[in-house]
User: What shape does this take?
Amino acid sequence: MNESFPLLIKIGFLSLKLLNNDGFWKMQQNIFNRFRDIAYERAGISLGEQKKELVSARVAKRQRALNIPNVRDYLQYLESEHNGDELIHFLDAISTNFTHFMREKSHFELLESELIHWKKNGCEKFRIWCAASSSGEEPYSLAITVADTFGAALPDVRILATDINTTVLKTASAGEYPEKALEALSRQQRMNYFEQLQTDKGDEKWYRAKPGIRDLLIFKRLNLATPPYPMKGPLDVVFCRNVMIYFDRVVRQRLISEVERLIKPEGLLIIGHSETLAGLTTGLKAVKPSVYRKVS
Ligand SMILES: C[S@@+](CC[C@H](N)C(=O)[O-])C[C@H]1O[C@@H](n2cnc3c(N)ncnc32)[C@H](O)[C@@H]1O
Assistant: This one.
């Protein structure tokens, strides 16, 4: 059967619906299973059965971009290009990148008080890692928190922002956001850390992060599913939020063991509010829900 085109098979007065509600072709189970295996093997991402329609829609976009009408041909192309560009595009297409500025705000308040405490105790150098930084709202929120905390007396601070998705990393390093995206920031923060873009991008005003905070950030592609990670550490704080939900226990364990290795004694790991390290082997101690410390 040709899987390229939508079709309603009519058998007598019975009609068999082969399109999902968005009008996309329903993907056959064995094809979905292959995409699912690739996502798991290459990025540690576990795609449940409920993701079938999403995968189908995202794969269809890649097929259109490459002008490969048949999904089996696309799969073959993807598999033959296993270490190449298409794998990156495929992983970009299936990853979920929802984020926003100052998401789960209490974490940024906690960061501020930890930085003040460490600075009082003589610490002059801070290394922060944002481990699934998506389109940049989270690492820029970290940079803004650091800049607000220290003002003109800024110590030696570097924030490494990583993600597997090259498309969102490009957005992040451009540091340009529409006015609406900046709503979670105070007026003062927007004025201090963003400048309005002169070029038109539709009706909305757009802003770009100023060099003062951009200079604190380094963006790199990093796949959390393939340790060991290339950083040396020690890191003061790791934000690894809302990414473990896509991983099974095996991948989460690998990730947490690496993070634990990289964090300095007394350093912090911050995960998403809906995530937990329960069931994993780790020496990191829960300080409060979603916040862990490496005890010396
Ligand atoms: C839902 S977003 C979370 C963004 C941000 N941390 C937040 O909490 O707002 C999940 C991010 O994890 C990234 N991701 C998924 N699998 C990954 C992997 N194996 N390695 C690195 N990043 C991954 C996705 O590309 C996406 O940008």
Q: What stands out?
A: Residues 43-45, 95-99, 103, 132, 134, 138, 163-165, 168, 223-225, 241-243, 246, 272 surround S-adenosylmethionine (CB under 6 Å). The domain at 106-175+210-294 is CATH 3.40.50.150 (Rossmann fold). The chain has two domains: 8-94, 106-175+210-294.
